Amino acid sequence: MSKVLVFTETTDDNVKSVTLEILGKLTGQEVDVACIGNLPEAGAKALAEHGAANIHKISGAGLEQYSPEGYSKALKTVIDNGGYDYVMAGSTSLGKDLMPRLAGSLDAGMASEVTNFTMDGGTFSGTRPLFAGKVLAKVELDGPKPHFVTVRPNALGMPDSPSAGAGNTNDVNADVGEIRAAIKEIVKGASEKVDLTEANIIISGGRAMKNAENFKILDECAEVIGATVGASRAAVDSGYAPHAMQVGQTGKTVAPSLYIACGISGAIQHLAGMRTSKVIVAINTDPDAPIFTKADYGIVGDLFKIVPILTEEFKKMM
Ligand SMILES: Cc1cc2nc3c(=O)[nH]c(=O)nc-3n(C[C@H](O)[C@H](O)[C@H](O)COP(=O)(O)OP(=O)(O)OC[C@H]3O[C@@H](n4cnc5c(N)ncnc54)[C@H](O)[C@@H]3O)c2cc1C
Question: How far is the CA of 301 from the centre of ligand 1 (A)?
Fold first, then answer.
């Protein structure tokens, strides 16, 4: 059995779902969770239901906003006193920034963005996609502990029957001292919807959208089916959508249950970001578009005709 600390990010009313995915995989290990700032009641309950023995709620001056320096110092106060074998977190924008910094400062091994892992006998072994998902590497860690692991959101899936933990909350006051590079303000993007990396359904538009205004047909469809809207790099580079919406090698890596690609050709760099989606639907006028080789369902046709029809049909089903 290993002792594992899982760092969780919180939302306004819960914890990020990737945390619960990770906890589901840690059944049989001794698991604590750490968060910084406010932990909503529903989040604390979910953590306990998914196996957290202790929940360290860290607060202190300088931790009101995320900063890599402040958060890493704060989390280190819990790590230093916990005797942990592993520290895990979601491979979110924040997790990808924070965890390598911590691992580096402790000279510890790290497995980044794994899509699956086992803990046989308490020893971590992970799977990590390389070369735009063309190769799956098996990752094992050695050297001084704790070892650090980030896990791609939506890759593990939610546990069917999680085993509960005591969920004892422990308030930790961290003195992070002076923070040299502080984030003054975080401005939310235009979309208030679920972050792409956590979304269960994504509908993305490519160069074929022609302009930013046309993305509203994807917004309308997304509204009906509870999807988040994404974009290809061609759409982003053309100014139709902000970079935060970009899916792919130089954008976000996503693994939703359903990915609907509208007017996207299926370049390798786009596929790198969405090929692990559970079900892929492609709408494209070109029957030879590479996206169809990866799609579970393909519709050859004009997205400007197909998407509004789909939206109307989805409305009837809701
Ligand atoms: C280093 C590097 C990193 C990159 N990173 C990324 C990345 O992160 N994400 C990414 O997406 N790309 C990335 N790219 C770019 C990538 O190579 C492609 O250029 C890009 O994905 C193409 O976007 P697209 O499919 O929207 O456009 P296109 O390739 O131009 O495809 C448009 C598609 O729309 C179809 N179409 C046209 N009209 C309609 C219509 N009315 N209805 C339906 N279909 C229609 C066409 O048949 C075509 O298949 C990267 C490239 C490089 C070199």
Answer: 17
Nearest CA to ligand 1 atom 9: 248
Atom 23 in ligand 1: residue holding the nearest Cα: 234
For the entire predicted model, the pTM comes to 0.82
* Same domain flag for 55 and 87: yes
Domain residues for the domain of 277 are 196-317
The CB of 206 under 6 Å from ligand 1? The reply is yes
pLDDT in tens, 183-207: 888 777 655 567 898 899 999 999 9
pLDDT tens-place string over residues 107-141: 999 999 999 999 998 899 999 998 877 889 999 99
Shared domain check, 239 and 166: no
183 in a domain, yes or no? no
Is residue 146 reached through a cis peptide bond, with omega within 30 degrees of 0 on the bond before it? yes
Of all residues in the chain, the percent with pLDDT exceeding 70 is 98
Amino acid letter for position 108 = A
**Closest ligand 1 atom, residue 286 Cα:** 47
Structural domain includes residue 301:
yes
Residue with tokens 């308030």: 171
Q: Out of 215, 229, 268, 270, give the residue to mutate to test ligand 1, the one with the largest number of ligand atoms within 8 Å of its CB.
A: 270
Amino acid at 4: V
Rg of the chain's alpha carbons, rounded to an integer?
Answer: 21
In angstroms, the CA 312 to CA 79 distance is 52
Residue 165 and residue 217 in one domain: no
| 261 within some domain | yes
Tell me the mean pLDDT in the region 157-165: 89
